[in-house]
């Protein structure tokens, strides 16, 4: 468990590279809908690597900047909760639609989450930090958004989505964000956890000088 807790984001990048090679070798034979959902899965894996490994200081931003935590290395987000939440998001919320490409609402929800990430990373977090970048934004701009637009264009052009798909997909996205991101972080917080983020994962937001501002 300690190995997975430390390296889950690195293993995710390896999976992303493997899926990328699979798509490059077989794109002409892979149905477009399935291929786009695989690309969406790659996007979330790259996103998570960017947040937690390189540059990797999302935990510090989350705990230190947003929650003004006195112990940003531990609370409210910690390595255990981050691992659980992100593995569920990637390998359930994003990966399951790949195996059911005809269930359009199932694929729409992750696409909507990718768009939502721009609001969080591109606007909300940047305004608070007074920056133009924070870990996760690169994947949002260069992967989530273009892949999501491509997916929506594809399903609309081919008349694949019904009104029910749009409604259920939107509701599923909202529920997933609430349970996995909003409530998940609160349910799994632990002030007495023995698992701490590294100085790299805290960045400037773990410094005493920042916390005193």
TrEMBL record:
Keywords: Membrane, Transmembrane, Transmembrane helix. The chain crosses the membrane at residues 12-30, 102-120, 132-152, 164-182. It comes from Brevibacillus reuszeri. This is Membrane protein.
